[in-house]
Amino acid sequence: MKNSNIEKFLRVDQDKAPAPYEVPAFQGMLKLDANESPYKISTNTLTNILQELGKVNLNRYPDPSYSDIRQILSQRWEYPPNQILLGNGSDELIQAIIIAFGGSGKTVFTPTPSFAMYPIIADILGENREDIPLTENFDLNLSEALQSRMFNSTQPGNIIFLAIPNNPTGNCYSKSAVKEIVENFHGIVCIDEAYFDFAESNYLHLLPEHPNLIILRTVSKIGLAGIRMGALLADKSIIETMRRVKLPYNINILSEAVARYVLSTKKGFESKIKQIIDNRFWLYEQMKQIEGIQVYPSQANFLLFRVSEQMAQLVYNRLLEEGILIRSFGNQGRLAGHFRVTIGTKEECSYFLNKFKKILENYS
Ligand SMILES: Cc1ncc(COP(=O)(O)O)c(C=O)c1O
């Protein structure tokens, strides 16, 4: 084939296809842009992990049912192991949910602003998608939703993604709105609890009553982002349906071995989670006192804040020059002038705060 324009072969029109996912260079930077844990696994634990890895048969596929890990997570979350399905990060599970339940005539509803991967994955799969604009306080607008296609579509089997706490806004939607959606939405409701470890409450208790509900969790935010492991919790009928779609061996044998060791020893996670919550309270209180910016309360491991739109690019660039990487949302749309900063160690939070305050003092 001569003169091929391969992009034309993409399954969706080029103008509907998302751009390739890219992250800024972060070597040597204080990385506060991706909601990872700032705490490394201790040297002691690493030594033990290496011993565990020594026992792994790299010539063999992993156990495709990942029964050990599901058992460990089952104890951690007090939820039956046969109602847990594992993914290569919850990103993969989001994709599997849309592959399993989406398709022709269905709509994927995505609150906005929320986690970018919901629209990215839906768009590349060529799904119908509808934004649900959040209110001024980043809550669900139930009265508007009740009038919308979200509740009035005659098509059964739509999908809605609710990140609770929401990324990047950090808040939890009001419980009454969530309950209304779980009870009355004609399709699959996916509550994505990537940040539930840092929040005051979660929705696991709703699962037994609601066979259309999926809860997603991940180990990425509590210190294991590198092993890529997410979990889907749901009714048996959802698990059985999803197993038709899920790739076999989707978690590699090394990640499986690391998770088996680290998650079963359990030490360290709870105290680090508590430390991150304490650091978040501290940084929030400090930032609240800075004039001319707005910082939003958060139940996650990050804070969303806003500076004036004229200052936004300058603040971002100056922080980069100081070696600090945070997440910018550009200068357009609902989140123009907003930034998301991941909660680091106490020292990292202070370092960021001091540099940020200096930049504001020098340039405003
Ligand atoms: C709301 C939400 N869901 C899912 C994910 C992805 O998690 P994982 O690392 O398990 O793919 C993220 C990551 O930032 C997130 O913010």
Commentary on this structure:
This protein has 364 residues and is of the alpha/beta class. It has two domains: 24-41 and 269-363, Aspartate Aminotransferase, domain 1; 63-251, Aspartate Aminotransferase, domain 2, CATH 3.40.640.10. The chain is 37% helix and 16% strand. It contains twelve helices and 13 strands. The protein has helices at residues 43-54, 67-77, 89-101, 117-124, 142-147, 149-152, 175-184, 236-243, 253-265, 269-288, 309-321, 346-363, and strands at 30-31, 84-87, 107-112, 128-133, 158-163, 187-192, 213-218, 230-234, 294-295, 302-306, 324-325, 327-328, 338-342. Strands 2-8-7-6-5-3-4 form a seven-stranded mixed beta sheet, sandwiched between helices. Strands 9-10-13-12 form a four-stranded antiparallel beta sheet. α2 runs parallel beside α9, α3 (89-101) packs across α4 and α10 (269-288) runs parallel beside α12. The radius of gyration is 21 Å and the shape is globular. The mean pLDDT is 94.
Present the secondary structure layout.
Layout: E1 30-31, H1 43-54, H2 67-77, E2 84-87, H3 89-101, E3 107-112, H4 117-124, E4 128-133, H5 142-147, H6 149-152, E5 158-163, H7 175-184, E6 187-192, E7 213-218, E8 230-234, H8 236-243, H9 253-265, H10 269-288, E9 294-295, E10 302-306, H11 309-321, E11 324-325, E12 327-328, E13 338-342, H12 346-363
Parallel strand pairs: 1-11, 3-4, 3-5, 5-6, 6-7
Antiparallel strand pairs: 2-8, 7-8, 9-10, 10-13, 12-13
The structure holds pyridoxal-5'-phosphate (PLP).
Residues 35, 89-91, 115, 163, 167, 192, 194, 218, 220, 225, 230 line the site of pyridoxal-5'-phosphate.
